[in-house]
């Protein structure tokens, strides 16, 4: 095995600094004791984390984001699991077109989706509601839920299912006792990735959120538009801490590179 | 893609009935809203009369005739191309170095580099705004003390800042794409070249690079299309004046309230991206046919 030379390692170090610098700076500045932004900070204080409690709009937006992420990921999986089973095991006309359609939210710019949803929900009379946000998020996180479920369903050994059927299990029992447990790791990872995508989405949500249904990224974005102060850095630092925790769990459970590169599990490959 | 395999009717029925709920969902809340948006771009709008559901080319004509829009679309694509180039120039060697690392370091640094992908883009861009912040921002101080630049560079509210922050946001996609391509590489070929007396530079240039090129190009397509439609980074770093397609569409929708014009900008962005992505995908697949076999 060849090793990296010193030049390569210097390049690597600079690269890693570039990648983590903005994230580290946000977390660092969040601990400032001052009432304004100052870099570098001279001493540490939790002042701005405590201040968060006094800003109900951030706390409320955080609650909206959590609910929205959890709900839309669950609903997306309700649709994605049967669709993944259909695509992974049956050959039918239009199957390729179907998976292309289901993955299309990855291709369509979120600004276009946001506009399309805004137009649509306004004209059917549910504009600005939480329900509209859930529907929009279900669509946007659907590809992530589908991909990981599909990868698990494609990789599954189907002879166990046949064994269950030959032992007298009916279709539902087989699904509940054999198929579901076998693809569960894919479903769980799909849910987590879907949740993160929903939790982080700004571009589409910014078109749909109204003051009562603002998510955390939308609240943060609108806040930054007016002023950048230590409060928004402590919000960001908290978001970063939460995401990192989920990330590390996801990495341990499934392997982050596998989660992020999960292929559609096409039979042709 | 897999060839169409002769399907029997019972398989078709079973497959379609399982996929039906998702299909209905997508027809109902993706296809119809997109069609409505295309329609909307042909509607009329006035400050006092609001949206009028007629079929006119006014918005499209305005985009074509007014040089403001041409400049804005050029900026959008210029920024996206530069961000793509930066991710390729730095992301490709980094993926190669990463792939040569041993044991736990590999996993750790992969997590460090692709992890930011999942961290809120608002938080990441805020980080850049803090680093850039004015003439005596941390980035400028660092560059000046290291002797790389003589006088401070303006990063905030400039395309330079936009490109850097976008390249940072998109870097994980490039590293991931190249990393995936590197996984398919047979290390024995590299070793064979080395044992035949090739220098490591020659190995990279003649053996590794040609084989991972499809990965680099597909990474570039992802980075380009995401950069061209990015919203948060241009909005925060670019400020209110330096508009790109996504931020302009947002302004038309939520500030000016000229929905038909905003819809036209968005539809044009979508069409341009689809053409570029589909076109370059086809080119790459033709050029590298043997690699995909």
Topology, please?
The complex is a heterodimer of chains A (269) and B (293).
Chain A: H1 6-29, H2 47-52, H3 56-89, H4 95-107, H5 110-123, H6 130-155, H7 159-166, H8 171-200, H9 205-208, H10 216-226, H11 230-254, H12 256-261
Helix pairs in contact in A: 1-11, 3-6, 3-8, 3-10, 4-6, 6-8, 7-8, 8-11
Chain B: H1 9-40, E1 44-46, E2 50-52, H2 58-65, H3 67-100, H4 103-114, H5 121-132, H6 138-145, H7 159-183, H8 187-195, H9 200-228, H10 232-238, H11 245-256, H12 259-287, H13 289-292
Antiparallel strand pairs in B: 1-2
Helix pairs in contact in B: 2-3, 3-7, 3-9, 5-10, 7-9, 7-10, 8-9, 9-12, 11-12
List keywords for this structure.
heterodimer; A: about 270 residues; mainly alpha; 12 helices; about 75% helix; about 0% strand; B: about 290 residues; two-stranded antiparallel sheet; globular; disordered N terminus
Strand element count of chain B:
2
Biggest sheet, spatial arrangement of strands of chain B: 1-2
Number of helices of chain B: 13
Mass-distribution shape of chain A: globular
Overall mean pLDDT of chain B: 89
Given helix and strand content, the structural type of chain A is: mainly alpha
How does the major sheet of chain A shape up? none
How much of the sequence of chain A is in beta strands? under 5%
Which chain pair shows the most residues in contact? A-B, 97 and 98 residues
| Multimerization state | heterodimer
Q: State the helical fraction of chain A.
A: over 70%
Q: Total number of β-strand segments of chain A?
A: 0
What helical percentage do the residues of chain B reach? over 70%
Low-confidence stretches of chain B: 1-6
SSE succession of chain A: HHHHHHHHHHHH
Order of helices and strands of chain B: HEEHHHHHHHHHHHH
Number of continuous helical runs of chain A: 12
Strand-pairing-aware structural class of chain B: mainly alpha
Query: Which shape of chain B, going by the Cα principal axes?
Result: globular
């Amino acid at each position: 095995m060849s090793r990296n030379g010193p030049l390569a390692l210097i390049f690597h170090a600079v690269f890693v600094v570039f990648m983590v610098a903005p994230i580290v700076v946000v977390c660092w500045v969040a601990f400032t004791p001052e009432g304004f932004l100052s870099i570098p900070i001279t001493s540490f204080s939790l002042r701005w984390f405590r201040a968060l409690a006094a800003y109900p709009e951030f706390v409320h937006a955080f609650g909206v984001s959590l609910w929205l992420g959890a709900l839309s990921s669950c609903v997306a999986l309700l649709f994605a699991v049967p669709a993944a089973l259909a695509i992974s095991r049956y050959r039918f006309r239009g199957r390729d077109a179907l998976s292309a359609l289901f993955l299309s939210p990855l291709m369509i710019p979120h600004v276009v989706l946001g506009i399309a949803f805004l137009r649509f929900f306004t004209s059917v009379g549910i504009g600005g509601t939480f329900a509209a946000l859930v529907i929009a998020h279900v669509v946007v996180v659907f590809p992530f839920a589908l991909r990981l479920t599909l990868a698990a369903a494609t990789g599954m050994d189907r002879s166990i299912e046949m064994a269950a059927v030959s032992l007298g299990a009916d279709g539902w029992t087989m699904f509940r006792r054999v198929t579901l447990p076998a693809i569960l790791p894919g479903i769980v990872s799909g849910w987590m990735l879907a949740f993160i995508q929903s939790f982080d989405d700004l571009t589409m949500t910014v078109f749909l959120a109204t003051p009562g249904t603002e998510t955390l990224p939308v609240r943060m974005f609108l806040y930054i538009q007016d002023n950048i102060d230590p409060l928004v850095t402590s919000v960001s630092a908290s978001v970063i801490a939460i995401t990192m925790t989920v990330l590390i769990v996801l990495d341990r459970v499934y392997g982050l590179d596998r989660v992020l590169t999960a292929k559609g599990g096409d039979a042709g490959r | 893609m897999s060839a169409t395999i002769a399907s029997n009717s019972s398989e078709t029925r079973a497959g379609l009935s399982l996929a039906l709920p998702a299909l209905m969902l997508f027809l109902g809340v993706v296809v119809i809203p997109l069609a409505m948006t295309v329609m909307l771009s042909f509607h009329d709008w006035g400050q006092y009369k609001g949206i009028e559901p007629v079929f006119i080319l006014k918005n499209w004509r305005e985009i074509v005739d007014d040089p403001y829009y041409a400049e804005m679309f050029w900026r959008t694509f210029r920024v996206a191309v530069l961000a793509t180039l930066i991710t390729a120039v730095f992301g490709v060697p980094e993926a190669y170095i990463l792939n040569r690392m041993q044991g736990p370091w590999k996993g750790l640094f992969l997590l460090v580099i692709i992890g930011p992908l999942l961290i809120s883009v608002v938080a990441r861009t805020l980080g850049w705004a803090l680093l850039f912040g004015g003439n005596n921002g941390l980035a400028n101080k660092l560059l000046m003390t290291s002797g790389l630049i003589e006088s401070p560079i303006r990063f905030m509210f400039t395309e330079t800042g936009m490109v850097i922050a976008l390249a940072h946001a998109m870097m994980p996609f490039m590293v991931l794409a190249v990393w995936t391509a590197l996984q398919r590489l047979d290390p024995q070929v590299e070793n064979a070249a080395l044992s035949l007396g090739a220098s490591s530079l020659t190995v990279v240039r003649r053996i590794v690079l040609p084989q991972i090129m499809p990965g680099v190009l597909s990474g570039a397509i992802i980075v380009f299309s995401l950069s061209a439609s990015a919203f948060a980074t241009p909005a925060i770093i670019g400020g209110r004046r330096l508009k790109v397609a996504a931020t302009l569409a947002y302004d038309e929708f939520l500030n000016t309230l000229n929905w038909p014009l905003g819809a036209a900008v968005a539809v044009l962005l979508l069409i341009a991206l689809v053409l570029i992505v589909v076109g370059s995908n086809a080119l790459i697949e033709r050029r590298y046919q043997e690699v995909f076999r």
